[in-house]
Design brief:
- The chain is an alpha+beta fold.
- Helices cover 22% and strands 34% of the residues.
- The chain has helices at residues 6-9, 13-30, 51-54, 89-92, 126-131, and strands at 44-45, 56-59, 64-69, 76-83, 102-110, 116-121, 135-141, 144-151, 158-164.
- An eight-stranded antiparallel β-barrel has the order 2-3-4-5-6-7-8-9.
- It has five helices and nine strands; from the N terminus they run H-H-E-H-E-E-E-H-E-E-H-E-E-E.
Length: 167
């Protein structure tokens, strides 16, 4: 504020208080739900894991996913138990028990850039094909791989995450 005397600036203490309060509220809001540009939603992304790093049983609050590599024509296969049938918060991240989760099997593949895993279920009806989770991002927490996807409102930070069983 060049050219403004100190006495004129002090005539508006309520304005300074209002600006300080608004700034504090904005900072609090950005730290309590929505991801910011500097703070991503979910685990840190990773591209360092290969298919062999992902074999094993992965668990979430709702069920588990077993990734195998049988080789040959069978290739990379999976079995799921309690898999979310849809991407609602109750089905993916809330503590409520999952009623009749999907027990399925199929094949899985790793993206060429090693950042995502795609599940192709055997024999899903059209409804489940549209609503269940097919793609998981690959991330890292505490130097360990995690599989995750964001669900719900993009303005909120809700993450369906699986960790390797026993880690």
């Amino acid at each position: 504020m060049t050219g403004t005397s100190r006495s004129k600036r002090s005539n508006h203490p309520h304005l300074r208080t209002a600006v300080a309060t608004a700034t504090a509220l904005l900072l609090a809001a950005s730290a309590t739900g929505c991801a910011t540009k500097d703070e991503p939603c979910g685990p840190a992304s990773s591209s360092r894991y290969r298919a062999t790093d992902l074999h094993g049983t992965w668990t979430s609050l709702k069920g588990h996913l077993k990734l195998s590599d049988l080789g040959g024509k069978l290739g990379q296969t999976f079995n799921s138990q309690g898999w979310p049938k849809n991407t609602t918060l109750d089905q993916t991240v809330n503590d409520a028990p999952l009623e009749g989760g999907l027990f399925g099997k199929g094949t899985w593949s790793l993206s060429t850039d090693h950042t995502a895993l795609t599940l192709t279920f055997d024999r899903l009806d059209a409804e489940l094909e549209r609503t269940t989770i097919h793609t998981l991002r690959i991330g890292e927490e505490k130097s360990q791989p995690v599989l995750y996807t964001r669900v719900g409102d993009p303005e909120e930070c809700h993450v369906f995450m699986l960790t390797r069983q026993g880690e």
